[in-house]
Design a protein that fits this description.
single chain, 54% helix, 4 helices, mainly alpha
Length: 156
């Protein structure tokens, strides 16, 4: 079989191809940005679960998976058995299938759960009451310290 060499491209053809590559890359970037913005908008608009719904086991409104599957945390990769590694790989494949359009660089999960959720399309779970109280106390203490500082500064 005889192989025929390809004809060399002219400068105009090279420029046209370069423009086409740049146009394609720009269109892909715009589509990625559009998808991310749509996912953020949807995430803001979707109702987040209440503490009662979380405790009742209501599924994630973003992906339909349990927020906490109660299977426990994954062991560190170096300590995984072959079976656990296989299960982890299968869970990762299911995640990628559910979130193939998300393009999120970050996943989140809750303590004691192997279920992973997308940062873009899965609203985070509510704070538990103890964490909410601790956060409120922290914010209050910070505001009081700022008020004391500004009151002390006004008397000088």
């Amino acid at each position: 079989m005889k192989v025929t060499p390809m004809a060399k491209l002219t400068d105009a053809q090279r420029q046209e191809r370069a423009l086409n590559r740049a146009r394609k890359a720009a269109l892909e970037a715009e589509e990625r940005d559009r998808r991310r913005e749509e996912q953020r908008r949807r995430s803001r608009e979707e109702t987040r679960l209440s503490q009662e719904e979380l405790q009742a086991g209501v599924l994630c409104p973003g992906c339909g998976e349990p927020i906490n599957d109660q299977l426990g945390n994954w062991p560190p990769p170096a300590q995984m058995s072959e079976e656990e590694q296989r299960q982890r790989d299968e869970a990762d494949a299911r995640y990628r299938e559910r979130h193939d359009q998300c393009d999120s660089p970050v996943r989140w999960s809750t303590a004691g759960s192997r279920a992973e959720h997308c940062l873009y399309c899965c609203p985070p779970p509510p704070l538990n009451p103890q964490a909410a109280r601790a956060l409120l106390q922290l914010i209050s203490a910070h505001e009081e310290a700022q008020n004391r500082g500004s009151a002390a500064g006004s008397h000088t």
